[in-house]
């Protein structure tokens, strides 16, 4: 029976769903970009705040969702990321596209998919959230009609994501055959009663890994990433890099920890290979990039590989390290794409590293922010990225997964080169052809303000992480 | 009929879908192939649902029902996916006057 008592538990999701409908109706009445943007901002803020009204503890909402500390933490994280992306989209869309209101419907809907995914406890709810997330992303990626590259990347993402989700579904069907359940607790029970993992179950799990690996852009399922990042508009790339990947990662943790799928040696080995390949290839391929969005794409592949180290540790500390690193990664990526958006002009985005030549002499504050972001992504002390990587390393060394730890260190070393190259360009001499360039679209308010805030967060987590760690320690052990 | 036959049939359908996506260059054909793949999964889920029902019907009348319900969700999602996809294909056609994906080569390193 459906009861109304569980509704307060899914308040953030309800707020975002309602907001999407209201925005849609408001467009039918009257188009107003400023109102739509403001309303979207307010609903993201309301979704983040409404988490405070959810009681503590772990509750099931029907058998589809489970609302626990872990899910609430990710709900807040995703809502905040949505808030930041909405803020950064306003001037960008004003400059580059005429009809902007539908963008916010799609943004709200795909955030809704991410928000329901982090509390999913059932394959049906996971699949539905995944599709809500990605079907709205298809349209978001191809949103700029004047931009042929956007349509191209939209269609590429569409075909590849659809194929990967059919793989995922096939895997789910095989798991269903073996266990007779689609909910994660039922699968765990079915597994423990049957003892050994059968071939069918392993095959099913492998196909699920293909689907999830595609969404998280892990090597060897990463080929779409640079094209989609480069072709989509910068705010959408930021969304793909943060919200879409973070939500899938949250479900990955839930899926493999609550069903105990990682206890199988073969599954663990497959994940190790994926993690090692992601770390090495992501960082190595980023070395050659001249396009800053492609560089960030490869860098994000590497970062997801780092996260897998903590995932494979299968400890409470690993969970905490992964959650902390994900927060740091969100902050860093949002700030990096925020800088790209700030530097864009009416004709196009500041795509190439050369566009940032001599930025320090023109906009010292922006250059300082971008430098900090790059250093944090590279993992230099005093920034949050360093501590995040340190926690990942401790989580790895604690359980002695030395191969992964060594690869993490080596690939971070490779990563230093391309991050520092960007920094070096910003402090180099002035750009020769700057007279021809149009003024940038970034404004002090709200754009500069958000960037400054993200910059301060990166430093704050880097110097004084205990505020965040205390929260994470409360929620991280719940899931198992 | 043993469940193996269903597994082989849906594996064959799934393989046809994959091969189609890999070798065809027409965006509309891509969608047909993806539909075939999704329907292979639907067949599989219904077959497994029947299998679990036959196994446990004595103890639980609704055993295996979740597989069948999942199929409805997949159908809905497939329809939504295609409607958004066709809209994007229309945009592609307006841009390059073709639905051939070989024209999608602007994004290079």
Architecture overview:
- The complex is a heterodimer of chains A (480) and B (109).
- Chain A is mainly α.
- Chain A has a domain at 283-480.
- Helix content of chain A is 75%, strand content 1%.
- Chain A contains 19 helices and 2 strands.
- In chain A, β1 and β2 form a beta hairpin.
- In chain A, α10 (234-259) runs antiparallel to α13 (316-343).
- The longest helix of chain A is centred in the middle third of the chain and has 32 residues, at 148-179.
- The mean pLDDT of chain A is 91.
- In chain B, α1 packs antiparallel against α2 and α2 packs antiparallel against α3.
- Chain B is built from 3 helices and no strands.
- Chain B is elongated, with a radius of gyration of 18 Å.
- Chain B has one domain (3-108): Helix Hairpins (Orthogonal Bundle).
- Chain B has 109 residues and is mainly α.
- The chains are: A mainly alpha (480), B mainly alpha (109).
- Chain A binds chain B through residues 123-124, 127-128, 131, 135, 138-139, 142, 145, 148-149, 151-156, 158-159, 162-163, 166, 169-170, 172-174, 176-177, 180-183, 226-227, 230-231, 288-289, 294, and chain B through 3, 14, 17-18, 21, 27, 30, 34, 37-38, 40-41, 44-45, 48, 51-52, 55-56, 63-64, 66-67, 69-70, 73-74, 77, 80-81, 84-85, 87-89, 91-92, 95-96, 101, 104, 106-107, 109.
Secondary structure blueprint with pairings:
The complex is a heterodimer of chains A (480) and B (109).
Chain A: H1 11-29, H2 33-50, E1 59-61, E2 65-67, H3 69-96, H4 101-118, H5 123-141, H6 148-179, H7 184-194, H8 199-216, H9 224-231, H10 234-259, H11 265-286, H12 292-313, H13 316-343, H14 359-362, H15 364-378, H16 384-399, H17 402-427, H18 444-463, H19 466-476
Antiparallel strand pairs in A: 1-2
Helix pairs in contact in A: 1-2, 1-4, 2-3, 3-4, 3-10, 3-13, 4-5, 4-10, 5-6, 5-10, 6-7, 6-8, 6-9, 9-12, 10-12, 10-13, 11-12, 11-17, 12-13, 12-16, 12-17, 13-15, 13-16, 13-18, 13-19, 15-17, 15-18, 16-18
Chain B: H1 3-23, H2 27-56, H3 65-96
Helix pairs in contact in B: 1-2, 2-3
């Amino acid at each position: 029976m459906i009861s109304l008592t569980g509704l307060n538990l899914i308040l953030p999701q309800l707020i975002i769903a309602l907001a999407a409908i209201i925005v849609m109706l408001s467009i039918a009445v009257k188009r107003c970009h400023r109102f739509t943007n403001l309303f979207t901002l307010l609903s993201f803020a309301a979704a983040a705040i409404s988490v405070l009204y959810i009681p503590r503890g772990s509750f099931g909402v029907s058998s589809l969702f489970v609302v626990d500390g872990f899910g609430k933490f990710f709900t807040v994280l995703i809502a905040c990321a949505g808030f930041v992306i909405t803020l950064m989209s306003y001037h960008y869309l004003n400059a580059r596209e005429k009809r902007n209101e539908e963008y916010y419907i799609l943004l709200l809907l795909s955030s809704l998919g991410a928000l329901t995914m982090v509390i999913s406890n059932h394959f049906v709810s996971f699949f539905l959230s995944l599709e809500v997330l990605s079907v709205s992303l298809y349209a978001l990626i191809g949103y700029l009609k004047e931009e042929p590259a956007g349509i191209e990347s939209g269609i590429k993402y569409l075909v590849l994501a659809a194929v990967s989700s059919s793989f995922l579904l096939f895997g789910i069907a095989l798991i269903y055959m073996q266990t007779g359940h689609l909910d994660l607790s039922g699968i765990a029970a079915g597994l423990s009663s049957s003892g050994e993992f059968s071939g069918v179950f392993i095959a099913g799990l492998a196909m699920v890994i293909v689907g999830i690996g595609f969404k998280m852009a892990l090597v060897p399922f990463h080929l779409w990433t640079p094209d989609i990042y480069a072709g989509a508009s910068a705010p959408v790339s930021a969304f793909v890099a943060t919200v879409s990947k973070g939500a899938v990662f949250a479900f990955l943790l839930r899926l493999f920890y609550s069903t105990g799928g990682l206890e199988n040696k073969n599954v663990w080995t497959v994940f190790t290979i994926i993690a090692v390949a992601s770390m090495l290839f992501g960082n190595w391929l980023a070395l050659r990039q001249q396009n800053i969005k492609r560089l960030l794409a490869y860098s994000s592949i590497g970062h997801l590989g780092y996260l897998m180290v903590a995932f494979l540790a299968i400890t409470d500390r690993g969970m905490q390290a992964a959650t902390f690193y994900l927060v740091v990664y969100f902050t860093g990526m949002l700030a990096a794409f925020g800088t790209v958006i700030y530097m864009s002009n009416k004709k196009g985005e500041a795509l190439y590293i050369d566009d940032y030549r001599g930025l320090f002499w023109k906009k010292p504050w922006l250059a300082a922010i971008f430098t900090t972001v790059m250093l944090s992504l590279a993992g230099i002390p005093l920034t949050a990225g360093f501590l995040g990587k340190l926690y990942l390393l401790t989580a790895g060394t604690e359980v002695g997964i030395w191969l992964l730890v060594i690869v993490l260190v080596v690939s971070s070393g490779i990563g230093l080169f391309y991050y520092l190259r960007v920094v070096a360009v910003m402090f180099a001499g002035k750009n020769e052809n700057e007279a021809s360039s149009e003024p940038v679209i970034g404004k002090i308010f709200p754009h500069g303000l958000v960037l400054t805030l993200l910059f301060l967060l990166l430093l704050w987590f880097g110097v004084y992480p205990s505020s965040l760690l205390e929260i994470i320690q409360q929620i991280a052990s719940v899931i198992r | 009929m043993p469940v193996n036959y269903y597994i082989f049939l849906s594996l064959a359908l799934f393989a046809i879908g994959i091969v189609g996506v890999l070798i065809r260059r027409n965006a509309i054909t891509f969608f047909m192939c993806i539909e075939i793949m999704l329907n292979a999964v639907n067949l599989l889920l219904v077959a497994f649902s029947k299998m679990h029902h036959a196994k446990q019907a004595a103890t639980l009348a609704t055993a295996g029902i979740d597989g069948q319900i999942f199929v409805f969700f997949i159908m809905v999602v497939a329809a939504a996916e295609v409607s958004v996809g066709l809209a994007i294909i229309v945009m592609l056609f307006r841009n390059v006057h073709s639905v051939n994906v070989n024209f999608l080569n602007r994004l290079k390193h």
